[in-house]
Inverse folding.
């Protein structure tokens, strides 16, 4: 018996409908904002991630799947999506056709300790927008993220948190002030924070340890030390979000893990999975394209983890039925009549499962219930005789006998009714 590698899972056919539903919702919503899909390779030269994500970052130092191919080149499975998209932007000279709006979806790989909602092969959906420099772009991107969550039916105290991380002008002086403060309080900091304090003092601000949290609260905060341009940008973003009637929280302690972010950083968090957790995160990275050897181009993007969203949907009981009509056939001649009707319904575009194991009416109805199909079509001996079928609305339990010849039309109008009922309930 060969099992899967630790931290890696099959996504079985009973779960893929939820994944496909999320992916389809993302495609639909992102297209409304003018985004098209980009598909970059799963593996790249290791050097790409070292340069984009940072050679000394945890991701590159400890978590990447890096290997030498048969030609001796060092390659890595992608640990995130932005580096590849930036590389593609540069390789394909996309700076000539700005703005460039793309989204991606697919597996990413990190060697981390597996836990609920965190796998070594995990899946992300992300968007990147290249070109626009002002806060209008930031507000539009955030509106799109929130529209995606609303469309997908992801509920449960979603909070849009924003912050400004400053720019090359103002971050350096702020960093010095922060470091001075942290050094004065270093006996209170955890070991991890002490180790990375000199290298990246900002990360102390989002340390999860309570004692570090107290220091972080009292520390100087970036938004109070922004330069004129950054400060105007941040005020612009807040004003645009207000016009959109999009609630937000300014969290001065949110710093994001990656060094390439500047100015706007944001997260969408929820308390539905225990502690307040991010379900989407992103920010502006105006310097990255130039740093990677391209023509300097401002950009902003975000990514969200699909594993968490799938958990949230399952928790919210957003049921994505795989089958619309379950067909039950019992008695002499019912098989043939059922087979015929199932085919007619499928030709009309419906998803139909016919019970193929025979069995009693009771056991077949049980299977119909388990399928979660909103409609069951039942053919017994008497229906065979009268060329009819019983159509049962599984949502409210009502049923009606209709002629086989009119069954497709009847089922179609019943589906419309059920959809209306669903919206009335305002799930
Ligand atoms: Zn600045
Ligand atoms: Zn700490």
């Amino acid at each position: 018996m060969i099992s899967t590698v630790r931290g890696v899972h099959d996504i079985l056919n009973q779960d893929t409908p939820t994944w496909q539903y999320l992916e389809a919702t993302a495609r639909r919503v992102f297209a409304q904002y003018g985004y098209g899909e980009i598909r970059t390779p799963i593996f790249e030269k290791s050097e790409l991630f070292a340069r984009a994500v940072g050679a000394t970052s945890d991701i590159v130092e400890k978590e990447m799947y890096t290997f030498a191919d048969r030609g001796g080149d060092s390659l890595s499975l992608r640990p995130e999506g932005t580096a590849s998209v930036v590389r593609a932007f540069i390789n394909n000279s996309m700076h000539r056709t700005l703005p460039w709006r793309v989204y991606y979806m697919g597996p990413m790989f990190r060697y981390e300790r597996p836990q609920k909602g965190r796998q070594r092969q995990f899946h992300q959906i992300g968007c990147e927008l290249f070109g626009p420099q002002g806060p209008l772009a930031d507000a539009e991107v955030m509106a799109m993220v929130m529209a995606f969550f609303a469309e997908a039916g992801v509920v449960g105290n979603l909070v849009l948190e924003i912050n400004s991380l400053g720019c090359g002008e103002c971050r350096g002086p702020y960093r010095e002030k922060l470091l001075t403060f942290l050094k004065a309080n270093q006996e209170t900091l955890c070991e991890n924070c002490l180790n990375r304090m000199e290298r990246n003092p900002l990360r102390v601000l989002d340390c999860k340890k309570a004692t570090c949290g107290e220091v972080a609260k009292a520390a100087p905060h970036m938004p109070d030390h922004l330069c004129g341009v950054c400060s105007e940008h941040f005020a612009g973003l807040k004003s645009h979000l207000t016009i959109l009637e999009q609630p937000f929280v300014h969290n001065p302690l949110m710093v994001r893990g990656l060094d390439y972010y500047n100015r706007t950083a944001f997260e969408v968090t929820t308390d539905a999975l225990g502690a307040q957790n991010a379900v989407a995160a992103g920010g502006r990275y105006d310097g990255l394209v130039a740093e990677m050897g391209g023509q300097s181009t401002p950009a902003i993007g975000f990514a969200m983890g699909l594993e968490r969203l799938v958990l949230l949907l399952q928790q919210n009981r957003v049921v994505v039925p795989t089958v619309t009509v379950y067909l039950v056939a019992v008695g002499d001649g019912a098989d043939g009549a059922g087979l015929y009707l199932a085919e007619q319904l499928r030709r009309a575009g419906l998803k139909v499962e016919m019970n193929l194991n025979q069995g009693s009416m009771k056991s077949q109805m049980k299977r119909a219930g388990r399928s979660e199909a909103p409609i069951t079509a039942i053919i017994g001996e008497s229906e065979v005789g009268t060329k009819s079928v019983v159509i049962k609305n599984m949502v409210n339990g009502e049923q009606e006998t209709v002629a086989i010849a009119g069954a497709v039309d009847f089922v179609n109008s019943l589906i419309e009714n059920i959809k209306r009922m669903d919206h009335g309930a305002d799930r």
Remarks:
- The chain has two domains: 16-167+227-315, 325-420.
- Residues 166-167, 169-170, 226-227, 229-230 surround zinc ion (ligand 1) (CB under 6 Å).
- DSSP finds 15 helices and 16 strands in the chain.
